[in-house]
Amino acid sequence: MATDDKLLQTLITEDSELARLVSDHRKLDQEIAKIERRRFLTDNENLARRLLKKRKLGDRDRIEAILADYKRKVYDRALDSSKAG
After folding, report:
1. CB 3.0–4.6 Å: which of 56, 59, 66, 84 could bond 28 by disulfide?
2. Dihedral, CA atoms, 56, 62, 68, 69, nearest 10 degrees?
3. Does this model's pTM top 0.85?
4. First to last CA, the chain
5. What is the largest CA-CA distance in the chain?
6. What is the SS3 assignment for 18-52?
7. Is 66 in contact with 15 (CB distance < 8 Å)?
8. What is the spatial distance between Cα 27 and Cα 85, in angstroms, rounded to a whole number?
């Protein structure tokens, strides 16, 4: 996973959608933590927490898809280079 973290940090500077997703993901994590620090949650707070977690998971899925797409492109380029050489 450390390789993915390094790749993510590199791609954040190149991909504005990825940078936004990572930023949103971190903010959602903070909002969830803030809610979960409460001793008791109301029904509305529980609902808000569940919705935030779903949004966070959606962001994470999109981040993973972007990383996988980038890796596939790099692999395809390397494969094309090896065929050409």
Report:
1. 56
2. -160
3. no
4. 32
5. 64
6. HHHHHHHHHHHHHHHHHHHCCCCCCHHHHHHHHHH
7. yes
8. 46
Q: Over 90: is that where the pLDDT of 82 sits?
A: no
| Segment 50-78 mean pLDDT | 93
The type of residue at 45 is E
Phi, psi of 17 (to 5 degrees): -65, -45
Distance CA(85)–CA(82), nearest Å, equals: 5
Residue 4 and residue 31 in contact, taking contact as beta carbons nearer than 8 Å: no
CB 22: neighbour CB atoms within 10 A? 19
pLDDT by residue (tens digit) across 50-62?
Answer: 999 999 999 999 9
Which residues make Cβ contacts (< 8 Å) with residue 53, sequence separation at least 6?
28, 32
